[in-house]
Amino acid sequence: MPSIQRLPRDTWHLAHPYFWSEERWPARIKLFATIALSLALVAMNVVLSYWSRAFYNALQNKDWDSFIGLLLTYKRDANGFMPGFIGLATVYIIVAVYRRYLSQWLQISWRHWMTTRLLGDWLAQRAYYGIGLRSATDPSVTDNPDQRIAEDLRNYVDQTLSLSLNLLSTIVTLFSFVTILWTLSGPVTVFGINIPGYMVWVALVYSAAGTALVHGVGRPLIRLNFLQQQVEADFRFSLVQVRENAEAIALSAGERQEGTRLGSQFQAIRDNWRAIMTRTKLLNALTSGFDQISSIFPIVVAAPRYFAGMLDLGGLTQTVGAFGSVQGAMSWFVSSYTEIASLRATIDRILSFQGEIAEARHIQESLSVVHPEGDEFILDHASLQLPDGRALLDNGTINFHRGQSTALSGRSGSGKSTLFRALAGIWPFGSGTVRPGAGKRMFLPQRPYFPSGTLRETVSYPAPPNAYSDAEIEQALSAVGLSGLAAKYDAKDNWGQRLSGGEQQRLALARALLAHPDWLFLDEATSSLDPASERAILAALQERLPATTVISIIHRPDVAAQFPRRLVFVRDESTPGKIMDVTGD
């Protein structure tokens, strides 16, 4: 786990691309305006320090005119001009409101930019797919990308802005009030040594002691916060799995097992949270004690000068306020430690996610895809492996010819679907070249994807909802046996759960009828249909898409016999597979 000492460097590593991006000038203007307003608040706190001194002196001296002037209008005397509290408070509120407003504006702009870039990197070159494949066999691979993008980026921007602006204000506050405290505290003699501005040194020693203690106690919170984000995300992901697979779990009577699994994951949340509670309890004991002592400590330290007549009541209150500001500034690390630890954990998760994206994109480059051309679709001199390293194909070449639809069969689990993934250019484990034929190509998996939304959006995917007319959609649905859905174009639903497995495959095939691809690859995309329906659907595809070359993984021999060309992928567990042409057998 990286230490807090590296936090500024890692924070800047993530931040500087935004402030040097195409949005750099609006970003910088909002940042500088927020900083300026933050510094204005510090300046007003300094003014309020002197106002407090004048106000309490007016009370001590029973000076009614000064009292009213300092409350309502202003006071002018030999010490200068002092505005009234109402004016000061009004300006302070306006500055504070607009500081927060600009900070929030910068926050959402920054988060939008980072989210857009990280989403783009995650989706580019199918890095999301490569990460998913690697995570299935390697537990060290990034978990829960959704949390990294949605929650961690939000937390990073929020915490970075909050801590940075707070630290800047703290530094300016420190230098502003050190001067006041130095002037008010005067010298003290210790063991014959005259120490000027003694309360400044007392504040320094007091804050340094608190910082050292808090760092020692709170350091384990970095790791614990990192783990808490991870186990929380794992639990949420499992809950989503149950929701998406509710029917399968119910049919299997798997409630007990799911309850055990979810309970075990929540136990991990509970155990880690208890560890956070224990460590936070110790940290809060220190910080709370520190805060309580801080409320009385400056009065005790300044009391000798007050009782000696060297300070009036206003001077005492200003001294106490200045001491509190200096001590608070010097104790910034103490008061912000929990948030710092959380930011450290958040940054670690974002950086590790970026590293996994880079690794996944690098692996994706192992199988090259050239520009589509010609009348053949070729997997050329390819060597493919499964994620666990077992050889699937060794320097193999597979050719598909335009106009010659092909059925591919083979033993279940032999690797036919992986061959299709390689033909699609998305399989990251291997080498070789994919030479697609000219024209539009479309791949339909066994379990199609349905985004939540209207039926029109679902059947048009990945094209936009307005890509096809109502008549075209109605004809496609009717051709695949879903004419009953034709009246529900604009009905919103979770179609992936609403439809049965066979209906989902029919709807995916309707997409193919609408898209009119030149090359259509069906990865067991009709396997959930009964034999008669499967034959009818494939016949409808051949009739309605006469210019489309269909390459389909088929298990039923009578269905495979409908295709002009038939291939069999033969492979056992220990050796690479090979393609055999059995057309005519």
Structure description:
With about 575 residues, this protein is an alpha/beta fold. It has 20 helices and 16 strands. It has helices at about 5-20, 25-60, 65-70, 85-125, 125-135, 145-185, 200-220, 220-245, 245-250, 255-305, 315-330, 330-335, 335-365, 415-425, 455-460, 470-480, 495-500, 500-515, 530-545, 555-560, and strands at about 75, 80-85, 190, 195, 365-370, 375-385, 390-400, 405-410, 430-435, 440-445, 455, 490-495, 520, 550-555, 565-570, 580. A 6-stranded mixed β-sheet has the order 10-13-14-8-15-16, with helices on both faces. It is elongated, with a radius of gyration of 35 Å.
How does the SSE layout of this entry go?
Blueprint: H1 7-19, H2 24-60, H3 64-72, E1 74-77, E2 80-83, H4 85-123, H5 127-135, H6 145-185, E3 188-190, E4 193-195, H7 198-218, H8 221-244, H9 246-252, H10 255-307, H11 313-330, H12 332-335, H13 337-364, E5 367-369, E6 376-385, E7 391-401, E8 406-410, H14 416-423, E9 430-435, E10 441-444, E11 453-454, H15 455-460, H16 470-479, E12 492-493, H17 495-498, H18 501-515, E13 519-522, H19 531-544, E14 549-553, H20 557-560, E15 565-570, E16 578-581
Parallel strand pairs: 5-9, 8-14, 8-15, 10-13, 13-14
Antiparallel strand pairs: 1-2, 3-4, 6-7, 6-9, 11-12, 15-16
Helix pairs in contact: 1-13, 2-3, 2-4, 2-6, 2-11, 4-6, 5-13, 6-11, 6-13, 7-10, 7-11, 8-10, 8-13, 10-11, 16-18
